[in-house]
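To fix ideas, we now present one chain and its tokenised fold:
***
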Amino acid sequence: MKSSPVKAVLFDLDDTLWPLVPTLVKAEAVLYDWLTQHIPGVVQRFSNEELRALRMELLPTKPEYKFNVWALRHAALTHACHLTSENKALVDQAMEVFSEARNDVALFDDVVPGLASLSERYVIGSISNGFADLAAIGISEHFKTSIAAHQFGSAKPHPEIFLAACEALAIAPHEAVYVGDDPLLDIQGAQNAGLQAVWMNRFQRVLPEHIVPAASCANLYELDMWLKRA
């Protein structure tokens, strides 16, 4: 670890502060139930798995879809409505339903006390390629900045999104520790931008040999202890 004192801790969100897969499965189920009632033609033609396949088909058609998953989902639903002659005007409402369910996350048990403890000593921020709303989730009070790729216009692992968070907090990159679960997007991305990187390994995964974080931890308590020692 570099000699400069750490001033900020920046977090990834999905699979770092809450589990992603069960959140998405639940949100997609809630949306599908809503579609059944309000846009039934889409449900009659497409299963949830087929809607996912439709998003994957659309992914390479516009560069923005690589960092704007909200726009991709919106476009896929719009296209599904077009293919089934359903009312495309209802897609905005459908996305509101999905977004609300997407923000109904089950935080890992250590997150709330961990953020409270860390925020006493550091400024806290987040950088995410998703579109979670920390205010809706109920933890925004701990964060001084929250940058989402779909609003920023660029996504991890590109350096500019990490540097924008540092600029927002008025700190140098080497004064920040970035914490995330993805070896490429989070660890390598943060390091390439000049930040220190800590791997949040909640699921006992194995890192590629060429990825070397400053530390590895399984929860925010371990992160807090490492920061105190470092």
Q: What stands out?
A: The two ends are 7 Å apart (CA to CA).
